[in-house]
């Protein structure tokens, strides 16, 4: 395969990408041409908030072609277009054959939560010392166990001495990893909810693959009080959700919040103060876990 690399300003990225598609590119990807430099721009907003910008100032557009001839033809046709005056051809190179499946899989190794509790992709054998294992492959929904916020929630679950017979709510379930982790530690009545239907579907599939029973649904599916409410979202939605999440915690139950940066601890404490006294109970890589007993 051959890779054609171009530089395009923000307002031409879509035009160039569509032209490459029409010229039989097998795939087109767009990267920030200023990544890792002082000019790098963040494009991701928090859920419910608009992104700060629609596109990067300068993008590197990379198109993959089946043959060198197709790649050269596409480059020549693009260079002949008026709009291309503001773009630049960066180069054309052969892409060495790779076993892409194996390469992707090699990037996901088993993740240790505690010495006995592991997240293990299906293409790996669980480590010998693992007593509880969640089998999970990377998919469309967030939550493979590689992010510190997920790991801290799972560590909290694993180090509480069991959740036997407890009712648990995983609010913002993503892949369902926290709900499945709770089930593996004895919880029996589990609701896992998310605003993203793809996450709800993933949670159901992952629960089945782990032999775990839970109810996955949209947020309206959460009902009543729970012994444990877990929510790994982000600071802004967590603040908005404060009354709703606290209303779901049974008296004496636990609230566990993640997706919060160290510097956001005080604003979270203030938002939850009318309902619960949040404390920082774990931290990893600048992220904190905040918990409260109601
Ligand atoms: C960071 S992921 C966490 C996934 C998983 N629980 C974990 O710990 O790895 C956050 C999830 O919350 C969902 N989410 C965001 N805002 C939400 C809201 N207001 N109500 C319910 N789910 C929400 C997102 O769709 C996403 O799947």
Automatic annotation (TrEMBL):
Gene3D superfamilies listed in its UniProt record: Vaccinia Virus protein VP39
Keywords: Cytoplasm, Methyltransferase, Ribonucleoprotein, Ribosomal protein, S-adenosyl-L-methionine, Transferase
Enzyme class, spelled out: transferase
Cellular location(s): Cytoplasm
Enzyme Commission code(s) on record: 2.1.1.-
Biological process according to GO: methylation
Reactions mediated catalytically: L-lysyl-[protein] + 3 S-adenosyl-L-methionine = N(6),N(6),N(6)-trimethyl-L-lysyl-[protein] + 3 S-adenosyl-L-homocysteine + 3 H(+)
Domain of life: Bacteria
One Gene Ontology cellular component annotation held by this UniProt entry: ribosome
Pfam families: PrmA
GO molecular function, one term: methyltransferase activity
Binding site residues for S-adenosyl-L-methionine: 150, 172, 194, 232
Cited function: Methylates ribosomal protein L11.
Homology family: Belongs to the methyltransferase superfamily. PrmA family.
Protein name: Ribosomal protein L11 methyltransferase
Source organism (scientific name): Variovorax ginsengisoli
